[in-house]
Structure formats: structure tokens, C-alpha cells
Amino acid sequence: MEKIELMEKERKILTLLAQCRYATTKQIVALYFQDSQHSRTAFRRANLLLNHIKNRQLINHLERRIGGVRAGSGSFVWYITIKGLKALHHPQRFKNKYEPTAHHLEHTLAVTQAYVFLKLLEEAGKIQLERFNFEPTCHRTYATFSGKKIFMKPDAFAQLVLGEYEDSYFCEIDMATESLNRVVNQCKKYIAYYQTGIEQREQDGVFPLVLWIVPHDKRKEAISKKIESKLNNFQPMFQVLTLEEFSEWIGGRTDE
Predict the structure, then answer these.
(1) CA 62, CA 35: separation in Å to the nearest integer?
(2) Whole-angstrom Cα distance, residue 205 to residue 70?
(3) Which of 122, 162, 212, 254 is most buried, by CB atoms within 10 Å?
(4) What is the CATH number of the domain that holds 144?
(5) Is residue 3 part of a domain?
(6) For residue range 90-108, what is the model confidence (pLDDT) as tens digits?
(7) One Pfam family for this entry, by name (predicted)?
């Protein structure tokens, strides 16, 4: 088997795409090219490296662009190829044979963006990002008293150090496409999992805060009110934020 040599930054980009599945050029620039003095230079460097990796058939980009063709090369959405996974010695847990739906892509990129925000907070010295698990690594499985196997499938799990404290979060990325009743039902699954005590034994007695990350204030208000009216005493388990608020909210907790 051909041994594929990778530079450090190439390996980082491949590892990211193996974990998150999709990332835009803009997100990759934010993560790995912040040492450039100017934004234009950062994008030029990123595009050169991404195209070099693409020419080696380790990554590719979708036909569809975020923001359309006019948005330029920064709008490309990248994914890892089977050859790229082999270069990392990763199992082939998914195959990007088809273009994803617009909704699936938007949702996946929002999860990637949450990760980008946390890494930028870490770069700024506001947090230490101990762990960020994408799907399916963030999934949880447990059995009920009757022996039925239950699967918990958050979109991500994050563990941070903020000052003297360690915080952990289950992240649910909501694109305002699900009914509010389905949101409540998902919350009830977290409550049922909380009541098993399994996660608390893993997290020094603390259950992760469940973050509902939503696209706009209207959705934030709707979910917040629904949780308040339907879940009563369990309301403190949940926090609803817009993606725009996410970074400031996490970073601001260091001042509490």
C-alpha cells in the first residue's frame, strides 16, 4: 500500500474533515491560517494548500457553494475522500457519493462553526478546549430497566476549562425545521438519560448542560417558552442560544 506523506497542516485539515464531514474554506482559514497579516493573504494561502491536497485526491469540494459562485473560492465546501481517510488510517464510516441536501449541509456546517468558535476562543486564551466530539463519537447508549437499548444522538459534545472550572455541553443544532413538540421530546430523552446517572458518573457528578443552538431570536424565544411550559423543574438543564450568541456566551462565562 502506498504510504502518503502529510505535512502538519495537511494532517490537521484532513483530521478536521474526517471528524466534521464538511467545512468551508472560510472555516478552514479561521482554524489554520490566522497567522497571516491580511485576510486576503490567509485565503490565498488556504486555497493553495487546499488545491494541492485536492490534486493529491485526498479531499474534494462540493459543486454547490455557500453564497453561490459570486462568493468566490472562500465559499467552497470541502470533504475528505476515501483516499484521504486511508491516509489518516481512519475507518471508512461514511462515503460522500452524493451531494448532500441543502438542509443537511447547512446543519453540518453549523456544527463545524460551533467548533470553530470554540477553537477561536481557545486561541484568544479565554478557554481550554479539552474535548470536542462530532457525531457519532458524541453519541451515548444506555439500557432501560426493561433492557431496551436507548440511543442519545446529540450533534456534538464539548468539554472546556474556563478559569478554575470545567464545563461540559451536549450541543443540539436546531435549524428551525422541527416542530416544537419534537424539540420537547428530544429534551425528555436528555432528562431520562440524566435520571440514569450514567453521565454523572463519567463527569464527576455533573450532567452536561444541553445547549440548543438556533438560527434566530424568534426560534430562541419559541423553544425557550416551550421548554419553560412543558419541562418545568428540568428547565435549568437547557440553555437556548443563537449561533451568533454562542461564542460570546461561552467566552463570557469566564467572567461569572
Answers:
(1) 27
(2) 51
(3) 212
(4) 3.40.1350
(5) no
(6) 766 665 566 889 999 999 9
(7) Replic_Relax
